[in-house]
């Protein structure tokens, strides 16, 4: 009997030992952050947005932080989104820091998510008849909190964007009771054609160009008062400013540089074009101009020197309208819907893209009224009110188009997620992110 009991005890002991071994095997197979295969981690990340990955997931543990800091991962993620080359020029890749790729990926995904779901992610507002004529110029400053508009009614209006909110018992986008914070009905004696600011994120001065042959400086930090008037001798059509320095492109083919600290006389005068100066823009210490003569010129705004001139814009029967320049590309939009791509370093011509191909002889072409480029995104607007959202690649990769409610767009501005356009329909239109209306933002 004792032998039988001993045998049973041994069998029970064996079973217990086997159970312990199985538990060890199961425990070893448990999924945890320390031993999860890299392939599975990357697969999970492919379903998450870039902002969440960087701001949350990478902080879960040191292993995730190490894996997600790999710049190769972000380069692949960025390039897998576009149908073309990114960045637009291959040699630009070398100038990017590792953190740039992360920021570009976050921008790409955030902008696409917002504009592909524009009805849910933004509120669209239309403001009409505050200006009683065409609104030809608009600018956003101070991280999108302030907007200034000017038009053919010769007035300037200053808007607190925080005051632009849905009206009670009004489900339409047209705001009927909104008024500007300040308005100057006598700002100029001619059409207000362009606006610029001393510092876009922390503006205290806004400059206005007019057909009354003047450029004026306005103090928007206290009272919206005119603090200086610069006589130009002829209509001022375009502006570019940096602090106390403002450059004005004139109808007379000249570009004048004024300094608020010096007085009313220009400190530099340039004449590199044979036609009216239609647009100016700056990048680093350089300024570029485009003209009715279909050429591009570049200046050193610090030294006051002409760097390049007579660079041909390949527009046979069209004239240049707008200009955008950053590290990735220089773009020139023309009056027949083409976007011309130039190398941002040496201003050599690269390629032209027909964003709005001509449809037929009888129908007027789409003019590219304005364009904006971020580090990874590109926005272009036709005068007929169609706004295209694209990746800033070669060629530009469109992912969404929206339509304005009013007609004949004149300018487009984009800052801190807020999109503003001015139109010939005496109107301003805004697309403001939903989060700006939440209590946490306020």
Q: Which structural traits does this protein have?
A:
442 residues, alpha+beta, Methylamine Dehydrogenase, Chain H, 38% strand
Quick gist of this model?
The chain is an alpha+beta fold.
Helix count, per DSSP? 7
Shape: globular
Helix content: 10-25%
Structural class: alpha+beta
Keywords: Repeat, WD repeat
Organism: Danaus plexippus plexippus
Protein name: WD-repeat protein
InterPro entries: F-box-like_dom_sf, F-box_dom, WD40/YVTN_repeat-like_dom_sf, WD40_repeat_CS, WD40_repeat_dom_sf, WD40_rpt
Task: Describe the secondary structure blueprint for this structure.
Layout: H1 2-29, H2 38-45, H3 50-55, H4 62-68, H5 71-79, H6 98-116, H7 118-121, E1 122-128, E2 135-141, E3 146-151, E4 156-160, E5 174-175, E6 182-184, E7 192-197, E8 205-210, E9 214-219, E10 225-231, E11 236-242, E12 245-250, E13 255-259, E14 268-270, E15 277-283, E16 286-291, E17 295-300, E18 305-312, E19 320-325, E20 330-334, E21 338-342, E22 349-354, E23 368-373, E24 377-382, E25 386-391, E26 397-403, E27 409-415, E28 418-423, E29 427-433
Parallel strand pairs: 1-5
Antiparallel strand pairs: 1-29, 2-3, 3-4, 4-6, 7-8, 8-9, 9-10, 11-12, 12-13, 13-14, 15-16, 16-17, 17-18, 19-20, 20-21, 21-22, 23-24, 24-25, 25-26, 27-28, 28-29
Helix pairs in contact: 5-6
């Amino acid at each position: 009997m004792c032998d039988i009991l001993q045998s049973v005890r041994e069998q029970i002991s064996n079973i217990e030992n086997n159970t312990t071994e199985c538990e060890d095997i199961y425990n070893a197979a448990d999924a945890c952050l320390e031993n999860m295969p890299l392939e599975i981690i990357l697969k999970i990340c492919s379903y998450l947005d870039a902002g969440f990955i960087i701001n949350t997931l990478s902080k879960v543990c040191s292993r995730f932080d190490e894996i997600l800091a790999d710049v190769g991962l972000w380069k692949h993620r960025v390039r897998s989104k576009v149908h073309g080359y990114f960045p637009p020029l291959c040699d630009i890749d070398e100038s990017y820091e590792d953190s740039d790729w992360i920021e570009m990926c976050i921008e790409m995904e955030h902008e696409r998510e917002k504009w592909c779901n524009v009805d849910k992610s933004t509120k669209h507002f239309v403001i009409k008849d505050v200006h009683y004529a065409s609104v030809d110029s608009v600018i956003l400053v101070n991280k999108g909190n302030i907007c200034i508009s000017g038009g053919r009614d010769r007035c300037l209006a200053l808007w607190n964007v925080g005051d632009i909110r849905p009206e009670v018992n009004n489900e339409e986008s047209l705001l009927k009771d909104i008024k500007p914070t300040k308005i100057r009905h006598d700002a100029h004696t001619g059409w207000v054609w362009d606006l610029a600011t001393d510092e876009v994120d922390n503006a205290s001065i806004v400059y206005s160009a007019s057909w009354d042959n003047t450029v004026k400086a306005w103090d928007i930090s206290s009272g919206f008062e005119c603090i200086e008037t610069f006589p130009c001798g002829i209509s001022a059509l375009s502006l570019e400013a940096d602090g106390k320095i403002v450059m004005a492109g004139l109808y007379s083919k000249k570009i004048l540089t004024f300094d608020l600290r010096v007085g009313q006389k220009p400190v530099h005068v340039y004449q590199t074009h044979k036609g009216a100066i239609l647009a100016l823009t700056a990048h680093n210490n350089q300024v570029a101009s485009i003209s009715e003569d279909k050429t591009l010129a570049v200046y050193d705004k610090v030294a006051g020197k002409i760097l390049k001139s007579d660079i041909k814009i390949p527009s046979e029967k069209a004239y240049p309208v707008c200009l955008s320049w950053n590290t990735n590309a220089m773009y020139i939009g023309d009056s027949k819907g083409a976007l011309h791509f130039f190398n941002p370093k040496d201003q050599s011509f690269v390629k032209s893209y027909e964003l709005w191909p001509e449809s037929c002889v009888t129908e007027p072409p789409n003019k590219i009224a304005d364009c904006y480029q971020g580090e990874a995104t590109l926005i272009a607007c036709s005068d007929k009110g169609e706004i295209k959202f694209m990746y800033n690649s070669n060629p530009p990769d469109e992912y969404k188009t929206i339509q304005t409610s009013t007609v004949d767009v004149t300018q487009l501005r984009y800052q801190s997620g807020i999109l503003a356009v001015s139109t010939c329909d005496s109107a301003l239109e805004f697309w403001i992110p939903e989060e700006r209306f939440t209590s946490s933002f306020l």
